[in-house]
Specification:
Layout: E1 16-22, E2 30-31, E3 34-35, H1 37-53, E4 58-62, H2 73-89, E5 94-98, H3 105-109, H4 112-116, E6 120-123, E7 134-139, E8 142-150, H5 155-158, H6 167-193, E9 202-207, E10 209-210, E11 231-232, E12 243-247, E13 253-255, E14 258-263, E15 280-287, E16 298-305, E17 311-317, H7 319-331, E18 336-342, H8 351-359, E19 364-371, H9 372-382, H10 393-403, H11 411-426
Parallel strand pairs: 1-4, 4-5, 5-6, 8-9, 9-12, 10-11, 12-14, 17-18, 18-19
Antiparallel strand pairs: 1-15, 2-3, 7-8, 13-14, 15-16
């Protein structure tokens, strides 16, 4: 039984419903060894204030609450403390959370019965019972919103692997299974709407990579697999969704040109590649029709920019260019974490010491320093003309296959196995 003090009118305006959509918090994430709890805490404080100020009725969290399948106690404290404040200190009536690929479904749903008492609904895994992914949000007996909440679609939860299947077969069958699951959930949601005197809004909530989605190199989002495994066509989502709230991609963006289908993006810059890029959460305002069961609600979508809680700066160039960039930041009395790329021709053996002296007793902290001149000279000895920028983890593995003279027809399967081993070691990719 929920305490009467926790009961809130829902919705605040009977003809309007306001939904806030956010995702990819990655609580517990670090950046070059620096834990980012202070940023996450500041964002969650801001989000509570925003929910209250904007009169949000429903909060949707589209996956990747945590950065790890085994989040720290501090990360969990941030999460549960936030949920408690939303339930007791704001007018928000419901929260719906789905698991992303970085989340442990078992951990997220371990306290689901307790959270339901606070009108917080968590869906951890996809499965055969699609009805469990359709949530009807009610005030007493009156339904005000239906949410088709589809968590990250893991291959093992959707289908059985076939012995000897090729990488191409695996890609195709998983994409087909994901599309079929969304169709089934959309149909189950339509059944939930049937017979209601007034059709409430139907919102889709998901965590996956829709084809055509925009990423930034180095922003932490990488392909699930060699090829296109896990990449789905944007047309798999049911047309009966009045709004589609997606997570997984860290850049805020619309899907298929429809402003009512979108990724909210991550609220924090995941890497220095995102330095200076605006971050936001999305608001979907529904006008509830009184015309009858067949009338779909109108929706207006807007965004709210998230403040920058930890400034990130990238500097690149020769010594004079780096010094000028640092002087500019020092003149601003900036407090920022820095990524510095030295690309000058001169060999500076004391480069690190010079830079540290430059920023001493300031609000600037160098988290990463890359001396391309030295590394490129070493690579040039191994492969003349080659530079650091052309190598990544996958390319290194390909080099190993070449060095071992592995036949070309065997390489795709080995690349696929390598990708799966990386998933096992690192967790599912962002």
């Amino acid at each position: 039984m929920v305490s009467p003090s926790l009961k809130k009118a829902f919705p605040t305006n009977p003809n309007r419903l306001r939904v806030l959509h956010t995702s990819d918090w990655h609580l517990g994430r670090s950046l070059y060894g620096r834990r980012r709890y202070h940023e996450s805490a500041a964002f969650l404080d801001w989000l509570v204030e925003t929910i209250d100020r904007e009169g949000v009725d429903v909060l949707l969290v589209a996956g990747d609450v945590f950065d790890s399948l085994t989040p720290s106690t501090r990360a969990q404290t941030l999460y549960y403390g936030f949920l408690g404040r939303v339930a007791t200190q704001t007018a928000c009536r419901h929260v719906v959370v789905i698991a992303g690929n970085h989340d442990s479904p078992a951990l997220l749903t371990a306290s689901d019965q307790l959270l339901k008492a606070l009108d917080i609904h968590v869906v951890g895994t996809v499965g055969d019972d699609v009805g469990s992914e359709v949530i009807v949000l009610r005030d007493d007996e009156t339904p005000h919103l239906v949410v088709a909440a589809v968590p990250y679609p893991r291959d093992r939860d959707l289908r059985e692997s076939t012995a000897g299947e090729s990488a191409e077969d695996k890609e195709r069958r998983l994409a087909e299974a994901i599309a079929a699951h969304y169709r089934a959930v959309g149909a189950a949601a339509e059944e939930a709407l049937a017979g209601l005197p007034v059709r409430p809004p139907l919102v889709g909530l998901g965590h996956l990579f829709a084809a055509g989605g925009r990423t930034v190199e180095g922003d932490g989002v990488r392909g699930l697999y060699v090829g296109s495994l896990g990449l789905v066509s944007a047309d798999i989502f049911p047309q009966n969704f009045d709004y589609l709230a997606l997570g997984h991609l860290h850049q805020p963006q619309v899907v298929g040109g429809d402003p009512a289908r979108r990724y909210s993006g991550a609220p924090l810059a995941m890497t220095f590649a995102e330095a200076g890029r605006p971050k936001s959460v999305s608001l979907a305002d529904f006008i509830i029709s009184e015309a009858g069961v067949t009338a779909r609600p109108q929706v207006a979508v807007s965004t709210l920019e998230v403040p920058v809680f930890q400034r990130l700066e990238r500097l690149a160039g020769n010594w004079d260019e780096l010094a000028a960039g640092l002087d500019r930041l020092l003149a601003e009395a900036a407090e920022a974490w820095l990524e510095i790329d030295y690309t000058g021709a001169d060999i500076l053996g004391d480069l690190k010491e010079r830079l540290e002296a430059r920023v001493a007793r300031s609000g600037l902290e160098i988290l990463r320093l890359r001396n391309h001149q030295i590394v490129d000279r070493v690579l040039g000895v191994l492969n003349p003309g080659e530079t650091l920028d052309v190598l990544d983890n996958d390319e290194i593995f390909r080099r190993c296959l070449e060095a071992r003279e592995v036949p070309e027809d065997q390489r795709p399967e080995l690349l696929a196995a390598y990708a799966e081993l990386r998933l096992a070691v690192e967790g599912d990719p962002l």
